[in-house]
Amino acid sequence: MGPALRTGSTFVTIPSSTFSPPDTPMKTQGYLGIDAGTQGLSVIFTDIDLKIISSGESSYDMLPGLGPECFEQQPADWEAALTTAMADLRRKLTAMQVEMEVLAIGISGQMHGEVLTDASGEPVGPVRLWCDGRNEAEGDELTARLGAKCPKRMTAVRWLWTIRNRPEQAARTAHLTTPAGWIAQRLTGDWALGIGDAAGMFPIDQATLDYDQTMLNAFDDLANAAAAASLPGTALPSLAELLPAVRRAGEDAGSLNARGAELLGLPQGVPVAPAEGDQPAALAGSLIAAPGQVSMSFGTSVVANSVGDRAFQGISRAIDHFCAPDGRPINMVWLRNGTTAMNMVVGMFGGDFAAIMPQVLAAADDCGGLLALPFMDDEPGLGVSRGGTALVLGLNATAGTPGNAVKAMLLATIFNLKIGSDELDRQGYPRSEIILSGGLVRTPQLGQLVADAFNTPVTILAGGEEGTAWGSALLAKFRGETLAGRATDWAGFLASQPTGSPTRFTPQLAAVGVLEHVFARYRQLVNLQSQLELTSARPAD
Questions:
Q1: CA-to-CA distance for 270 and 261, rounded, in angstroms?
Q2: Main-chain dihedrals φ then ψ at residue 334, nearest 5 degrees
Q3: Which residues are within 8 A (CB) of 229 and not within 5 positions of it... i.e. 6 or more apart?
Q4: What is the rounded distance in angstroms from the CA atom of residue 252 to the CA atom of residue 496?
Q5: CA distance linking residue 2 with residue 15, whole number of Å
Q6: 3-state SS, residue 78
Q7: Does pLDDT of 435 surpass 70?
Q8: CA dist 516 → 128, 366, 411, 427, 511 (Å)
């Protein structure tokens, strides 16, 4: 196969037989996108129209020997992976006789990680990642103290835990950032961060589009009390001194310095866009910016990110908050239990998705009367404390078909998103369009089921399975266009990008009515979850 090119969100693979490399390297202007995920790092190079020319990849592991719910990595592994991925990209471009001329660089990374460094920028210890669960108590404590949702994933929550549990690291810390922010600092020397990733570190004030000052003061009071107990005689910097500066899309976040140029093998001075979290970058890659648009991704976990037209009021256990790259508020419903239970049921019927998915599409909207619970794990937003009770109810001689069973399990996950979105509906947030992505779109016709369940139009962009690296490249282009005076409005910039040939679904009135009835039954079943939980305890002999 030849190189993969992308137009907007459309990938076109050119067969090798039709691609004839030139005799001498062809200098190509474009953008570099870097994405540091949980398991690996990828880089892509696009042309000026954001068509992907080629990509490079590398991987890394968690630190071994940690206990349950403990997930850590070493920043040095990300830096090594970046060097390896760039070498991989260069090998492919050399084979294509393409020479990069990078106009700007975009960076995205796994959100909520706690990167602690000393004054020189060197890490003072390993990084606790978004999935590390050791600070749930601090999350509850900060939520109550600040009056704003502070999930256990939030970086500031982790910092409070570190002050109490790793005081020797806290005492050496001069900077606190995220994986994407750390990579950006290694490349530029600047401690800056995109507002979306920054919102995953500490709550953002929608009036100032900066960290909320009142909440910073309240956090410092709590942190000082914690430090007095764990670090007697040591004065910690205020949280505001530790956090990176907040930058919006298009704003100055530095340029490649000597170290960054050496790491990437590029000239000094290439502008770098504000580093973003994976969720804001994914929103960018789905061309989402307008209030009412919802980015919905189905995989092992499921996320629905809704662009708001105002700040959320109050606290909901089901809804977390961050920002889009331009600072607009994003309300996120996240489910730990995604398609895992559905995949398990497919496996029970032979594991052949190609054979079963047509049966799922043909199954009745009420799944023949079947209802399912998909809880393979806990679901904090729904108040499910532990999983292990995934099940299907209503089996009988006519309803127990593969199509009905698999569809019931998928509908249960969709319904969990609906339950999590209830508070958004009660507060009157707009929902005009769902942009669907992730593994579910391998069967694009399932977009109709989502449209009917939410009574909202659904769009699937070509290339909807893709990750966030392209969103990073898009952020790089916006930075370059802003520097050149050709772009100032983020929403307008996204709207101007080509979308290829998207697939669209509109709600079907009859199906909407049936699914509303099934949803009401499902809510009753979820309310029984606590009575259905099974423990591993054995009876006494």
A1: 9
A2: -120, 135
A3: 164
A4: 22
A5: 5
A6: helix
A7: yes
A8: 41, 10, 12, 20, 9
Mean pLDDT of 190-219: 97
Q: How far apart are CA 174 and CA 117, in angstroms?
A: 6
Rounded mean pLDDT, 386-397: 85
Q: What's the rounded Cα separation, in Å, for the pair 533 and 497?
A: 48
d(CA 38, CA 59): 9
Helix (H, G, I), strand (E, B) or coil at 375: coil
First to last CA, the chain: 64
109 SS3 class:
strand
Q: What is the pLDDT of residues 74-114, one digit of tens each?
A: 999 999 999 999 999 999 999 999 999 999 999 999 999 99
Decide if 413 contacts 363 (C-beta within 8 A): no
The angle at the Cα of 313, spanning 308 to 318, to the nearest 5 degrees, equals 80
Tokens describing residue 496: 């101007």
Task: Report the alpha-carbon distance of residue 187 to residue 59 in Å, rounded.
Answer: 20
Token pair, residue 406, equals 């698999």
Among residues 242, 267, 244, the alpha carbon closest in space to that of 256 is found at 267
Q: Please choose, from the candidates 281, 377, 280, 286, the residue with its C-alpha nearest in 3D space to the C-alpha of residue 332.
A: 280
CB 16 within 8 A of CB 48: no
Domains and CATH numbers, the chain: 4-264 (3.30.420.40), 288-460+506-536 (3.30.420.40)
pTM for the model stands at 0.87
Please classify residue 233 by burial: count the beta carbons closer than 10 Å to its beta carbon, then call 0-12 exposed, 13-18 middle and 19+ buried.
Answer: exposed
Edge-first strand order for the sheet with 302-307 is 319-323, 329-335, 302-307, 293-298, 433-438, 458-460, 503-505
CA dist 291 and 249 (Å) reads 17
Helix (H) or strand (E) holding 523: helix 509-527
Nearest to 413 by CA among 271, 541, 302: 302
The neighbour count for residue 4, using CB atoms within 10 Å, is 16
* Tokens standing for residue 45: 């190079």
Q: How many residues does the chain have?
A: 541
* Tokens 């919905």, residue located: 296
In angstroms, the CA 532 to CA 74 distance is 40
Strand partners, 108: 35, 276
Q: How far apart are CA 115 and CA 335, in angstroms?
A: 25
- Per residue in 115-171, pLDDT tens? 999 999 999 999 999 999 899 999 999 999 999 999 999 999 999 999 999 999 999
Query: Are 178 and 242 contacting, i.e. CB atoms less than 8 angstroms apart?
Result: no
Contact call for residues 163 and 226 (beta carbons, < 8 A): yes
Integer-rounded Cα radius of gyration of the chain: 24
Q: What pLDDT is stored for residue 21 in this prediction?
A: 52
Q: How far apart are CA 266 and CA 102, in angstroms?
A: 8
Q: Which residues of 180-216 are buried (b: 16+ CB within 10 A; e: fewer)?
A: bbbbbbbbbebbbbbbbbbbbbbbbebeebbbbeebb
